[in-house]
Every structure is written in structure tokens, then in C-alpha cells.
Amino acid sequence: MTQExxxxxxxxxxxxxxxxxxxxxxxxxxxxxxxDRAIAIVDAAAEAGADAIKLQTYKPETMTLDVDSDGFVIxxxxxxxxxxxxxxxxxxxxxxxxxxxxxxxxxxxHGLACFSSPFDExxxxxxxxxxxxxxxxxxxxxxxxxxxxxxxxxxxxxxxSTGMATLEEIDDAxxxxxxxxxxxxxxxxxxxxxxxxxxxxxxxxxxxxxEMFDCEVGLxxxxxxxxxxxxxVAHGATVIEKHFTLRRxxxxxxxxxxxxxxxxxxxxxxxxxxxxxxxxTRYGPTTAEKPSLVFRRSVYVxxxxxxxxxxxxxxxxxxxxxxxxxxxxxDLLLGMRLAVDAxxxxxxxxxxxxxxxxxxxP
Length: 362
Fold this sequence. Notes:
Layout: E1 8-10, E2 13-15, E3 22-26, H1 35-48, E4 52-57, H2 60-63, H3 86-93, H4 100-109, E5 113-118, H5 121-128, E6 135-137, H6 145-152, E7 158-161, H7 167-179, E8 185-190, H8 205-213, E9 216-221, H9 227-234, E10 239-243, H10 261-278, E11 298-301, E12 316-319, H11 330-333
């Protein structure tokens, strides 16, 4: 799919290579089942400079079954949620649907976009009543093509995480979305471990995703800190999504790999600096650098000398400032004779050497 150079718009912000990175603060379950805390997270995200706050819209019964049998209890000892029943975990993490309007209204008061990840078609139907400006498809739902089709039919911009996905699966999702009417699509490189590690992040994939699918590409980042996100911007990421909480020490299902407000602020500032630094391929001094050219070394007379004196390493040196001949001529000048008297501190020029040296100014 081909997107205009001007990029995608979500609310008042443009997403694209010509705009600073779009920063999404993912609330997830970090509200800890307190609406007051959810509102405080919105306030903190706005103060830190994020562009959007993102919710997750589901109910435990739309995610899984209320059973204890194999597969419905997390048995990975490395998981943050080891031993937890899926049904209980989703009950703790879900955002009550009747909070969505209040959270969105608070975000709007800050000029902050608010949208959500629906996890089934009933969630899409509900979110449509709230007129959210975009939809996010979570990595685990990226293979749910009926869900992608339903979201695409809304005509709103779609952001799709690609954690665990093969190239074929991503192609299936993109084709399904575009055939169902999606014209504004963002793919997010993602590593679906919690937390993720930098060595598993493979952010160079971002460039390949852009080349393969000709759409905006970003990073959904579960690593600690902001280093991977900044690296992603250098590889062309135009969207960065990070989980966000008020304090990791407060606990919560996703708190361990969530940014705190000062870290989110750092991400906003440093990602913009990374984007500003990309520039274009160029060589030679920039306009800003030109005044510094004077501080390069050049060839100077280092001792008082008379016409006819031979130039040697004792009376000719490479020093700052840069008003003399370039250093590349130094060896060539050695052994030549001066045509005129020259005092210490005279910048070397071709007019100072005798014509009989057999050389003229290059």
C-alpha cells in the first residue's frame, strides 16, 4: 500500500518521516483497577509530552475461558505471571468499559489522543460509539483476520503490532486490512516477551518492513529504558509505543516493564533529537560549521626568515589557525626557498616562494 508523503493523521498529529516520532503511552492494566489512578496516568502522560494514551478493551470472558485446565494457567517459570490463571489475570488487567469515556475526555482536555486495542468484535462495536481516532491491533491478535477485517471496515487508521509474526502472517494481515478498506496503516516491530531484551529487539527489521509493505513503521517496545526506541528512530520508526505507569513500585500486571513519567519525558525529548539528527546524506561543512574552518591547521612561518632562505621543519610548521596553505602541501614546501622576507606568524602562501622552485599555485 502506498501512503502520501505527508503521512497519516491521528487527531491533530501527523505520523510520517517528515514529523517527529509519535509517542504512545500504553496504560494497559497499570491503573490497578482504580479510575482515579487511570486519570492520573493520563495527566502524567500529557505532562511528559506523549501524543496519545492507549487503552485495551476486552473482558475476561471475551479473552479466555474460566477454567483451570492445561493451557489456561501460565506455567512458564520465567514469566512475570507464572502460575496465574488466564481468566484471573485478564480480570485484574482489563479496563472497565464504563471508564473509557471518562479517560478519553480527560485525554481530550490535554490535547492528547486516546484510542484502544480491541480484542474482539464486541469491543470494536463498543469503541465505535466513542468515536476514537484510531485502532491498535495487539501482536497476539495480529493473526485474528476477522478482527482485523472488522477494524479496517471502520475506515480509521490502524496500528498493528507484529510480535512473533512471520513475514507471511504480516502479509496476510496487511492484505486483509487493505482489502477491507484500510488506507492508513502503521506496522510496529515488536518483541513479545515481557520484558524484552535489547538483543532480541532486532530494530533493523524496521527498514525492511517499510520496504516490504510501503507503509509507516514503528516500534512497540517492551525493553527497559529508552535505548531501543531511540535506535528504532534512527532506522526510520515514526511511532514508538511504550507501557507507562506512575511508579513501578506501585505494582500492577505490566508495571515491571513500564516507563515512569520522567523516563517517558526522556523518550519524548531524545526521540525527537534522534529524528532531528537524521538529516540527509551530505559532506563538507554545514553553514553552522563554516566559522570553525578557521581552527583547522595550516602552514605557517614559524621563525623570522629572509628571502632566499630554505623552508625547513624549523621555520615552517603546521599550526592553527587555518589561513595558510593546507597541510597537504607541507612536504612539498620543504626545501623551497622564500621569495621575500617573512616574519614568524605569516600564513604560508604560494606568493612567498621563489618562482624558480618550478611550481605555481595548484
